[in-house]
Design a protein that fits this description.
Layout: H1 3-15, H2 18-24, H3 29-43, E1 48-51, E2 54-57, H4 59-86, E3 91-98, H5 99-116, E4 120-127, H6 129-138, E5 143-146, E6 155-169, H7 182-187, E7 189-193, H8 198-209, E8 218-223, H9 226-234, E9 239-243, H10 244-252, E10 257-258, E11 265-273, H11 280-291
Parallel strand pairs: 3-4, 3-5, 7-8
Antiparallel strand pairs: 1-2, 5-11, 6-9, 6-10, 6-11
């Protein structure tokens, strides 16, 4: 039994005339007759009786007609669902992001996407870079935007933005008033993000390049968020390396200062699964990120000490 056979049967039942039914379906009379005959032969049931020059539903045909109409209605609803998904009139999009991206870079872009496609239900899951990448690898999220380097055989990445990482301290910290050198940072007390954090990984690579051994840092405390790290730095005698995006409100409020020790720029990377195709919603979101162009990291200004 095929949907085409059901459509022909219902049309003939409504017109009770093979030629008129075929014309309504834009097919030949012979093709319509063949479809009804195949349906009857397949199930061993006579669906129509010939009455004079016309047709009449048999007892089996009358019993079968409501079920046939229900199947066609369900098929039309299913096709409409696919059309709606393809046209982004409905759908779902699950995105993961690392903390810095999720807090400072991604919200405006998600908001623009949600306004452009109000029928798509968008969900954001926040973790560190390793956690966000794992969600895409597992198929729990279609996409992730992270600020860390991800080495995974199943994930593809492309740059979609970026920012800078800098070293911060309390205005009362000794390094806020003396030259900042690699040996001085090596001896300082540090507050760090947790392992798996993209911010921590970027900072450690940059420190290593500037002559500071990350493995030999005097780490006093590890904390799971940028806000917690910056609050600890503002109230203590430790330093930390975090995103300029995260630190900006604390700098503007005078709670921390950026030390003159440049750690450079780092990329924000969009992750997707190499073997899973993107849905229409995910593809549209990727296109919306591309439409805004790549964010260039802001030029770092010298701190006012």
């Amino acid at each position: 039994m095929t949907l085409e056979q059901l459509r022909v049967f219902v049309a003939v039942a409504e017109h009770l005339h093979m030629t008129r039914a075929a014309k309504a379906l834009n097919m030949t009379q012979s093709a319509a007759s063949a479809a009804v005959a195949a349906l009857e032969a397949r199930h061993g049931a006579r669906l129509f009786d010939r009455v004079g020059r016309g047709l009449a539903l048999s007892e089996a045909g009358r019993a079968f007609l409501p079920a046939a109409r229900a199947v066609l209605t369900s098929a039309e609803a299913a096709a409409q669902t696919l059309d709606d998904l393809a046209g982004l009139r409905r759908g779902a999009l699950a995105v993961a992001a690392s903390q810095t991206v999720a807090s400072y870079w991604l919200p405006a872009r998600l908001a623009r996407f949600a306004l452009a496609y109000p029928g798509v239900k968008t969900r954001l899951t926040v973790g560190n870079t390793a956690q966000a990448a794992a969600l895409v690898a597992q198929g729990a999220c279609a996409l992730a935007v992270v600020e860390g380097v991800v080495d995974s055989p199943v994930l593809a990445g492309r740059k979609v933005g970026g920012d800078r990482v800098a070293v911060y301290a309390s205005p009362a910290h000794l390094l806020a008033h003396t030259p900042v050198t690699a040996p001085a940072l090596q001896q300082a007390a540090w507050v760090q993000r947790e392992p798996g954090s993209g911010t921590r990984a970027a900072a450690e690579r940059a420190l290593q390049a500037r002559g500071v051994d990350p493995a030999a840092l005097r780490v006093a405390l590890e904390l799971p968020s940028n806000e917690a790290v910056l609050t600890a730095v503002a109230d203590g005698q430790a330093v930390a390396a975090v995103s300029e995006l995260a630190a900006r409100p604390h700098v503007e409020a005078g709670r921390v200062v950026a030390l003159p020790f440049d750690l450079g720029a780092r990329d924000f990377v969009l992750l997707s699964h190499k073997e899973r195709g993107l849905s229409a919603a995910a593809g549209a979101f990727v296109a919306s990120l591309s439409a805004t162009g790549l964010d260039r990291p802001a030029r770092r200004k010298a701190p006012h000490l």
